[in-house]
Sequence to fold (71 residues):
Amino acid sequence: MSKTEVETVEEQLKFETCGICQGNKEDGIHIYHFFICQSCERKMIETQPEDEQYSYFVDKLKQMNKKKQYS
Fold:
């Protein structure tokens, strides 16, 4: 591997897939094995229970308890 390829791999390892928006983000929080990016975390905090998006976040957070099956 060349130095450029190693740097590219290292850059890719910095990013994780958000369990809410499915985007590849660098900054966020981990709850168990579930990663939530900063943007989604902020949206969740600001969402009121009567908002339509509230139930979307609840459904996504339910996935946190599902065990991942690796093949």
